[in-house]
Write a structure and sequence with these properties.
This protein is mainly beta. The protein is built from eight helices and 36 strands. The protein has three domains: 287 residues, no CATH class; 101 residues, no CATH class; 188 residues, no CATH class. The protein has a six-stranded antiparallel barrel with strand order 13-14-15-20-19-16. A hairpin with a 5-residue loop joins strand 30 and strand 31.
């Protein structure tokens, strides 16, 4: 079956750079933002000639003239404005800008890059502020809102694209708007890179290796602004993802060539080096890191296995950048690998069996989960949206399991993630509710019987159950009307009603009472152990697949008695009223349940597990209303 390529630009190349041998040059004189501003103000025409350096092809630096016009200021951002007749292209972000041999900053923003324009406007991030930001980076919070564009004199200035498309922290990775390069792991090394200002830099967000040793990276290319004597690297001149504290691996590269077009011009990434170091900070004025492997152990690693019909297909070793966006990046890696390696298509009938194991540090038990997912479709008017079984499987894992562990507040650290997916093509084994039978009047004191029938969507298998519901009638309000009382003779407030629901785990978890929610889905946890225990309980609920639930009016006074005799929710060392709040240092040692008159009691019917290989319709949520009467 033909497939549409998932990449915007793919370059299959051979490594020409070594990892161990590199050099860098600094000793660069620097001009501060204040000095630049004084220089512009003192010039006769309020203009200062400058130039920037970048690579148009290969690794040779070229010089491009610009004219400085002034400084734009707004809260959180200061930019040196310029004009140039040179066409600014994607990949030039970070290009060093010089005045009289002194580095003033990084080419970072542009307003007009169309070929038919005679002059292009742009902005430069001051190197003095880049240095200051990098020095303060270790003390800043992990997630922050950083400026990604600005408006000056009616013009909107956007970050110069990195690679083929610009990347912002608001842009979805599902659009594949990154350059994807594939390189061979065991290629012959022919020369070592010299890292210096003006050379390309490639920041990696995702890397995976298949069983053949071929490495694929999801990355973006910009330009190095400055390398100091300690091997610190400054680049891009604007935020990449704006995630502040991060770990991205980085490389350098040759430029295959530069493409000019009216829709947008860009550099083509050519041969890339191996990983040379790590970017550890990504903020307002650029990205910053160091040469060497010191931080690369913080990249997140995943083992992914593809199987079909139970037979092994291929293994992938995945590395993902460390940032608050790691779950999203990892999810994108799974999607891209699936698209490139024959995972089920969205409109293809299939089932994906997923088995995951998340190993945790510090002696915590691993979180293990298995489930089946079927392909599905959703109609919106005349449009139909399709989701493949593979997409449904990994999306659930990342949203409901991995993200919960990754973002936890209990110092639980993930050590390793192993995921195995087994594709069952050509079959969409979904059980639908075929029919059910339940009386609309239930005699008080007599346990009712439910008959329920499920049929697979392909009508290959049907399962049925006839079950008696065990009810503690002492908790249910005794009615005053009999089964023969005409409805016209009944007073509405005296009718004892009940509700029966047959639902999937998804619908069940979204329709819990407050008491059930506190017991099954608490909103706070009493430490790491409690957090992991509740996560495992929720995963167990999902595995149960079908829930039959009865809600009936509680016996009069039942909850009044419970509230009257309830244990005080206040800690024992707190007594009497005060004008302020009691602060409980260290939080709570046990869970406190809300004392609330809900007016209902709930009973459940246990059903046997759905046969292996079948999935319950996640939209299942059938509701039946009935009345409780006297015989």
């Amino acid at each position: 079956m033909a497939r549409k390529a998932f990449f915007v630009l793919a370059v299959f190349s051979v490594l020409i750079f070594g990892q161990a041998n590199y050099s860098f040059a600094s000793n660069q004189a620097i001009m501060t933002l204040e000095e630049v501003e004084r220089l512009i103000s003192s010039s006769p025409d309020k203009e200062v000639k400058a130039h920037f350096e970048s690579v148009e092809r290969g690794t040779k630096l070229q010089s491009y003239d610009i004219i400085l016009r002034g400084v734009h200021r707004e809260p959180g951002l200061k930019v040196i404005m310029f004009i140039t007749s040179q066409k600014i292209v994607a990949g030039m972000s970070g290009s060093p800008v010089y005045v009289d041999g002194k580095l003033i900053g990084a080419l970072a923003y542009s307003f007009n890059r169309l070929n038919f324009a005679d002059w292009s406007w742009g902005g430069i991030s001051p190197i003095s502020l880049m240095l200051e930001e990098a020095d303060k980076g270790s003390s800043l919070l992990n997630v922050s809102s950083v400026p990604t564009s600005f408006i000056s004199e009616g013009r909107k200035y956007e970050p110069i694209d990195t690679g083929y498309h610009k990347i912002s922290n608001h842009e979805s990775l599902s659009n594949s708007k990154f350059i994807l390069n594939s390189v061979l792991q065991n290629s012959k090394v022919s020369k070592a890179p010299v890292l210096k200002a003006g050379m390309p830099i490639v920041a990696d967000l995702i890397e995976w290796t298949d069983e053949k040793g071929e490495i694929t990276t999801v990355s973006a290319m910009g330009t190095i602004t400055y390398v100091d004597d300690n091997g610190r690297v400054f680049a891009f001149g604007h935020p990449f993802l704006g995630a502040r504290k991060v770990v991205y691996s980085f490389r350098t590269a040759e430029v295959m060539g530069t493409v000019f077009s009216e829709g947008g011009s860009y550099k083509l990434t050519g041969d890339k080096s191996e990983v040379l170091g790590s970017i550890t900070f990504d903020s307002t004025y650029g990205i910053y890191g160091s040469i060497g492997s010191g931080q690369l152990d913080k990249l997140h690693q995943f083992d992914l296995e593809f199987r079909s019909g139970g037979k092994h297909l291929q293994d992938f070793k995945i590395k993902v950048a460390d940032s608050f966006m790691t779950p999203l990046l990892a999810q994108s890696a799974f999607r891209l690998i699936g698209q490139a390696n024959n995972a089920p298509l969205p409109q293809e009938s299939s089932v994906t069996e997923i088995a995951t194991r998340v190993d945790l540090q510090n002696g915590y038990k691993p979180v293990i989960w298995e489930e089946l997912f079927a392909s599905k479709s959703t109609k919106f008017g005349i449009q139909t949206l399709y989701t493949s079984s593979y997409d449904a499987a990994y999306e659930y894992f990342f949203s409901e399991i991995y993200s919960q562990l990754f973002e936890n507040k209990y110092n639980i650290n993930i050590e390793k993630v192993s995921v195995s997916v087994n594709f069952i093509p050509g079959k969409n084994s979904v059980f639908k509710l075929g029919a059910y039978k339940f009386p609309n009047k239930v005699v008080w004191g007599e346990n009712p019987v439910l008959e329920v029938l499920f049929i697979s969507q392909d009508n290959v298998t049907a399962i049925a159950k006839k079950a008696t519901i065990q009810i503690d009638w002492s908790q249910v309000q005794k009615p005053v009307f009999t089964k023969d009382t005409p409805d016209i003779d009944k007073t509405s407030e005296k009718i004892v009603r009940g509700i029966l629901s047959i639902s999937s785990s998804f619908s069940f978890l979204n329709n819990l009472t407050s008491s059930e929610s506190q017991a099954l889905m608490p909103q706070y946890f009493l430490g790491a152990g409690d957090f992991l225990e509740n996560l495992s309980r929720r995963l167990g609920i999902n595995n149960q697949k079908v829930f039959v639930r009865f809600v009936m009016k509680a016996r009069s006074g039942l909850f009044d008695d419970q509230i009257a005799n309830a244990k005080d929710i206040m800690p024992q060392d707190i007594s009497g009223e005060t004008s302020g709040w009691h602060t409980i240092d260290g939080g709570m040692k046990e869970r406190k349940v809300t004392v609330k008159n809900e007016g209902v009691v709930v009973f459940y019917l246990d059903l046997p597990q759905v046969p292996d290989g079948y999935v319950v319709d996640q939209n299942l949520n059938e509701v039946v209303f009935f009345e409780i009467v006297l015989n």
